[in-house]
Design brief:
The complex is a heterodimer of chains A (230) and B (355). Helices cover 39% and strands 20% of the residues of chain A. Chain A has 230 residues and is an alpha/beta fold. Chain A is built from 8 helices and 9 strands. In chain A, strand 3 and strand 4 form a beta hairpin. In chain A, helix 1 packs parallel to helix 2. Chain A has a 5-stranded parallel sheet with strand order 8-7-6-5-9. Chain A has a 4-stranded mixed sheet with strand order 1-2-4-3. By secondary structure, chain B is of the alpha+beta class. Helices cover 33% and strands 24% of the residues of chain B. A 7-stranded mixed sheet of chain B has the order 9-12-8-13-10-14-11, with helices on both faces. A 6-stranded mixed sheet of chain B has the order 2-3-4-7-5-6, covered by helices on one side. The interface between A and B is large, with 40 and 35 residues. Strand 1 of chain A pairs parallel with strand 1 of chain B, so a sheet runs across the interface.
Chain lengths: 230, 355
């Protein structure tokens, strides 16, 4: 049995309390809830997960719909798969999404590194060169921190692609080679653009199986579920 | 079949129609930075602490021996008992003075009240609770200002004193300093659970005891060692306040999850979705500065961002002083824990580890 609940206009903890009452009614297999803030979506997602329900949510105009279903009923429901996908598309790397999405596998993620820094340093031209060097070092350390964190996080992207000045990370004498090797050992493909390695004078220093070309890079990018460019 | 929103039950309770109570009502750091961006930066030779570094209060040096501390704090009701609400709001306001290493001497009340909706006796009880808390701190309540309003607000403007040499700021932490915290975490989640009617009597009394405990004895005990940096854990949550110290001290921090103390059932409540809106605001403001261990349960990270009302002190001390400090606290009946350390690294970055 299915039930809809309109909880717009209510603030925390009311939506959670009212939804919990319905969850306790075992005869309901599907509960559709309308709320008007993202906080309520997040809190209902936590509630659903704590009760071992499947949770889907999507924006509906200015409001949000949260759908809770008991596990046994999901397989029959092809609509579920559909909104699952919509959910996935809404994911943003900087935004830690509530539990419901955490089980999604991330095998289709590509990390594209197109410079030797995390983001770019600010481009004020009138600053002295010491400061510019300091900014550069900072941004470069940040990129290293990102890779270290990625290694520890347990996320397993399909590949890390390096192009442009990003290929400098492959320098066997540089500070990144250790973490890149460890990522490779976890089964993540680590590949660098051959043209770019050549330009930066690194081609002879990098193992051939880690050198790739623009065609392959293009294929990787178009087949990715998600591309993260630090 | 659709269930329409019903009116909340029991309209005559203080916390009804309050969207967010306590430090949960705080404007997020993210938004606040945008609001404050256009303000002129106040600089003066005697101003030892101003808006910079997100300090807890302003400190103005009168002479080499004495400085005054000014702070103001207020929020909507967090509990239905008016006396308790007054106590908690006053305690929270007084806390900023201790966080700067000072002693409150005088306070003025800030009060907004819907006199048409509630009997005046409720207003009197709120003010009595606040006055009693100020007296407990050994300070004088010397007046205040009140207005009619659709929403109840209570708090204090507090004046304190400190010797300039003994002032405690966010910026003094050193590499390898240990991070010591008093009081348990999770007041935001617990107050929401209270509002939902899910907090047991025993859980309530633990929570209320913490919310009305002054940080005066904790500070006094901490003074037995050399304190490098200090703040109180309030609206920006543990992560936010740890970040502010780390950033101001140009250090990174390591936080040990296994060392944290939470209010009973807080994890369970967070898991069920009783997470205050401003915890999400804190997450948005500070998450970029945090790296997590793999598989950190969501309810734990929610509690790291949970806005604290009248929270404990967060102190940076040399590693050799950590145990002495915890023992000194314990002697005056205060439970303090070593929850991590400051290290060289990206300023303001927090590594969250299990042990």
């Amino acid at each position: 049995m299915k039930k809809s609940l309109d909880l717009r206009g209510l603030t925390c903890p009311e939506p959670v309390l009212r939804t919990k009452k319905l969850i306790d009614d075992q005869s309901l297999s599907r509960i559709e809830i309308l709320v008007d803030s993202e906080v309520n979506v997040q809190n209902l997602t936590r509630l659903g997960n704590s009760q071992k329900l499947s949770v889907q949510s999507q924006a509906k105009g200015e409001h949000f719909e949260v759908v809770l279903q008991r596990a046994a009923t999901i397989a029959k429901d092809e609509h579920a798969a559909h909104s699952h996908e919509a959910d996935n598309k809404q994911r943003q790397p900087s935004h830690m999404v509530a539990g419901g999405n955490q089980n999604l596998s991330s095998t289709g993620t590509i990390i594209l590194i197109s410079r030797n820094t995390f983001g770019s340093t600010s481009g004020e031209s009138d600053r002295n060169s010491d400061k510019v060097k300091e900014d550069q070092d900072f941004s470069s350390n940040l990129l290293n921190l990102f890779l270290q964190t990625l290694l520890q996080s347990g996320h397993e992207p399909r590949a890390i692609l390096m192009v442009n000045s990003g290929v400098q990370l492959m320098d066997p004498d540089g500070p990144y080679i250790k973490v890149l090797t460890e990522l490779r050992e976890k089964g993540i493909e680590v590949l660098a653009c051959g043209l770019c390695l050549d330009y930066y004078g690194l081609k002879s220093k990098v193992q051939i199986e880690q050198v790739t070309n623009m065609f392959a890079i293009c294929e990787y990018l178009f087949s990715a579920d998600r591309i993260i460019s630090p | 079949m659709t269930t329409n929103p019903e009116k909340p039950i029991g309209n005559n309770q203080l916390t009804n129609n309050v969207k967010a109570g306590g430090c949960s009502a705080k404007i997020s750091s993210f938004e606040l930075k945008q609001i404050l961006a256009g303000l002129p930066k106040t600089k003066h030779a005697n101003l030892l602490s101003g808006i910079d570094n997100f300090e807890d209060a302003a400190v103005y040096k009168l002479n080499d021996e004495l400085a005054i501390i000014e702070s103001v704090d207020f929020f909507p009701p967090v509990v239905d008992d008016p006396y308790l609400y007054g106590q908690i709001a006053a305690n929270n306001a007084l806390s900023d003075i201790y966080a700067m290493g000072g002693k409150p001497i005088m306070a003025q009340a800030i009060f907004a009240f819907p006199t048409c909706d509630f009997p005046l006796s409720i207003a009197a009880e709120i003010l009595r609770g606040g006055a009693d808390q100020v007296a407990k701190a050994g300070a004088l309540l010397t007046g205040g200002h009140s207005i009619q309003s659709s929403e109840t607000i209570y708090g204090l403007a507090v004046t304190g004193l400190v010797k300039p040499k003994e002032m405690l700021t966010n910026s003094g932490a050193r590499p390898n300093d240990r991070i010591i915290m008093t009081k348990a975490l999770g007041t935001g989640v617990s107050l929401l659970a209270l509002k939902a009617g899910l907090l047991s009597k025993a859980e309530q009394s633990l929570l209320f005891a913490a919310l009305t405990t002054l940080n005066d004895r904790a500070l006094e005990a901490a003074r037995t060692v050399d304190i490098h940096a200090c703040t109180d854990v309030t609206g920006f949550g543990l992560v936010g306040h740890m970040h502010e110290i780390a950033k101001a001290s140009k250090l990174a921090a390591r936080m040990l999850i296994s060392a944290l103390r939470f209010f009973p059932s807080a994890q369970e409540f967070a898991k069920q979705g009783l997470v205050p809106a401003s915890a999400y605001g804190n997450r948005k403001s500070f998450e970029a500065n945090v790296s997590y261990i793999k598989d950190l349960p969501l309810e734990i990270s929610d509690l790291l961002y949970d806005p604290q009302t009248a929270g404990g002190l967060l102190l940076a001390v040399a590693a050799r002083d950590s145990t002495n400090l915890i023992n000194a606290m314990s002697e005056v009946g205060i439970e303090a824990t070593d929850i991590g350390e400051f290290t060289e690294g990206i300023p303001g970055h927090i590594d969250v580890l299990i042990t």
